[in-house]
Amino acid sequence: MVLSSFDTSDAVSYHYDGFPPPSLKLELFYQSLLEATEAVARYDQALKNLPNSEILLAPLRSQEAVVSSRIEGTIATLEELVRYEAEQEDEDQPDLSHARNDVLEVALYAQSLRRAQEKLRENVPLSPYTVREIHANLLRFGRGHEKTPGQFKTEQNYIGERLGRKISFIPISPEQLPPAMDRLFDYLNQPDLLALVKITVAHLEFEALHPFKDGNGRVGRMLIPLLLWKEKIITQPHFYISAYFEQHKEEYLERMRAVSREGAWEKWLSFFLNGMAVQARHNLKKAEEMAALYESYKLKFRQVLNSAQGTEMLDFLFTRPIFQGKQAAGKFGISTSNRFRTKLLEAGILSEIKPPAGRRSGIYRFDALLALASSEKL
Predict the structure, then answer these.
(1) Which of 15, 137, 207, 351 has the fewest CB neighbours in a 10 Å radius?
(2) Dihedral, CA of residue 356, residue 358, residue 361 and residue 365, to nearest 10
């Protein structure tokens, strides 16, 4: 980027020597903290009550990938994502190099989030190395693959509007980045700080550092559920906040600028914690709707399929709302899967996207689940 061709008159520079914040006035964001704590706790209790949160909330993780990527201008639908994943799933080494760029980027986001969750389950600590690994997975292919995936920046980067030729924020210099990243993770490892406050402050600091050439927003949003899980605020790493950030994108950036410009940490905390409360209530509602959908279809599947494997088939569809016929055959056997598919199509539960032809499998869709997972209104 040639900086001289951009308007920097209103640009705010990173808050050198301003992290961690020397003191925070709790009374200025206490109500927001209280509401976020209560809302997230209620959401987590709902997760604990779900019979299998991995299965029931798998579609929400995919939708988070769609929304988080859309904030960066990457447009793909949930249906495009899960269809792409279905077409790649049975490959030992999925070929990610020939997809439409937007769908590929969203698929890489979903894969990166799943891999990061698996790493934490294996007790791999969050560290600068872990963050670089997430970034390397995220930018393996697509438009960011030439921007040094997995490597911290070596040139100054900027936040702004490329079309409007306007710079709004100048992140930390690459020379100052390594010690700043160490300070960030030292801060995250402090045991005596309020966990939600720590995560809120750390998220802004990560985005203000902007440690990579590209993908900083997506990695930063991905870290939020991982940090909530690491801090034992939630019992499963399913908390997605991108929808709130997308709806308040301009305020998000202005609150970040205000921290560097005037040390307005408390206003940032109020904004972020309010978002967590709003999103937690939305996530709770969506989790309850997912559970209700699952329970209602559990009875339908037993009746329609007349099989002890009815619930197994439902579980299969919750993790693959779009699937190839051969994937169901691999799970249930050719004869059983064909019978299940025929009955579900006749009952209007499944719809056919692409019919089978020769040796090519048909592709099918579980419409009710996709419709519910795709709804975004907060």
Answers:
(1) 351
(2) -10
Pairing of strands 159-161, 166-170: antiparallel
Summarize pLDDT for 108-130 with one digit per residue, the tens: 888 888 898 888 888 888 899 99
* CATH topology (fold) of 305-374: Arc Repressor Mutant, subunit A (1.10.10)
From the list 60, 89, 88, 64, the residue with the least C-alpha distance to 76 is 64
Predicted confidence (pLDDT) per residue in 10-41, tens digit: 999 999 999 999 899 999 999 999 999 999 99
Give me 304's structure tokens: 């329609």
Residues contacting residue 209 through CB under 8 Å, at least 6 positions apart:
14, 171, 172, 177, 180, 181, 184
- What's the predicted TM-score (pTM) here? 0.87
For residues 315, 317, 320, 326, the Cα torsion angle rounded to the nearest 10 degrees is 110
* C-alpha gyration radius of the chain: 22
CA end-to-end span of the chain: 37
Can you name the residues that pair with 13 across neighbouring β-strands? Answer: 170
What does DSSP say about strands 350-354 and 159-161: parallel, antiparallel, or unpaired?
unpaired
Q: What would the two tokens of residue 149 be?
A: 């995936």
Q: What is the pLDDT of residues 56-74, one digit of tens each?
A: 777 777 888 888 888 887 7
CATH number belonging to domain 12-287? 1.10.3290.10
Average pLDDT in the chain: 89
231: tokens are 């801090």
- The mean per-residue pLDDT over the stretch 331-347 comes to 95
